[in-house]
Amino acid sequence: MVNAVEAVVVFGMRARAQTFWIIAVCTFALAPACVYAEEGFDTEHIFGFMIGTDVGNPGEREFQTRTTGRFGKGAGTYRALEQEVEIEIVPLPNFRIEVGGTAALHDITGVPGIDDRRQFNFQGASLDLRYRLLDRERAPFGLTVAAELHGDRIDETSGAKGRMYGTDFTLAFDRELIPNFAIGALNLIYQPEWARFEVAGISEKSSTVGAAFAGMVRVGPNLLLGGEMRYFRQYEGIGLGEFSGQAVFVGPTAYFQLSERSRLTMSWSMQAWGRPAGSGANLDLVNFERHQARLVFGVNF
């Protein structure tokens, strides 16, 4: 019985990875032609792997699902999917709170340094806090500080059981480059992580710093298209200790305003360049994946 359930889960994960962009294409084709466009941009949700400086209006409530896929290591088969369900509220002007829970699927075979694993598990919970310091409507640019705290029982990379804690600190900037047509964004990122693995009893600390750039243009009343470029450096220890590796990800992003209350964001990134510490390789497939994809659907209620 256990083997049968495992087979169904792995089959579903593989099918989901292969059909991710089929769904995306169908969404392009089926998106409504008439929506409720507003002047200017609301950057709260238009980016895929980045964040904008908008946080919503006081009293707003949103339900959101976020599916993130990470595929490819240096050898073997590596597929990891995370499904997060989130509730967002804006209790005060310029301040947003988001709580969420995540389930994870892992299909790993023959990857050096990672045990073979095919499993589905509840991964953990998160709390995301954002405060907007500058509104770009009244300042030269928008500025928001964000901190996402998460506690996990499953390691997001290997799927190994343990206790994992981390915080993603982000300083977000954005500016409307051409009124109601083009907008640019910058994120500065610091991510300290603590982990203690259940089986081996090993404790690890790591940290990642990065910078991400994005640009989006309005190509229709309900559609924004653009791209993101992200650069990361990973270190041992939470204080940026010994250097582990670096990578650059680039890829397209599309945002749909499906209706007055619903939205959809799709993003895909590939590792364009990278290098693990002590290696002359052109990609870092030790610390990072070859491909990353994200699909986000949200609705106001």
Give the total of beta strands. 12
N-C termini distance = 40 Å
CATH architecture assignment? Beta Barrel
Radius of gyration: 19 Å
User: What order do the helices and strands follow?
Assistant: HEEEEEEEEEEEE
**Widest beta sheet: strand line-up:** 1-2-3-4-5-6-7-8-9-10-11-12
Indicate how many domains the architecture comprises: 1
Oligomer: single chain
CATH class type:
Mainly Beta
How many helical elements?
Answer: 1
Percentage of residues in helical conformation: under 10%
Profile the largest sheet: 12 strands, antiparallel, barrel
- The low-pLDDT segments are 1-13, 19-37
Overall pLDDT: 90
- CATH topology category name: Porin
Gross morphology is globular
Briefly note the structural class of the backbone.
mainly beta
Q: How much of the sequence is in beta strands?
A: over 45%
CATH homologous superfamily name? monomeric porin ompg
Word description of this protein:
The protein is globular, with a radius of gyration of 19 Å. It is built from 1 helix and 12 strands. Helices cover 10% and strands 59% of the residues. It starts with a helix and ends with a strand. It has a 12-stranded antiparallel beta barrel. A hairpin with a 2-residue loop joins strand 2 and strand 3. It has a single domain (2-36, 44-300), classed as Beta Barrel (Porin), CATH 2.40.160.40. The chain is mainly β and 301 residues long. The model is unreliable at 1-13 and 19-37 (pLDDT under 50).
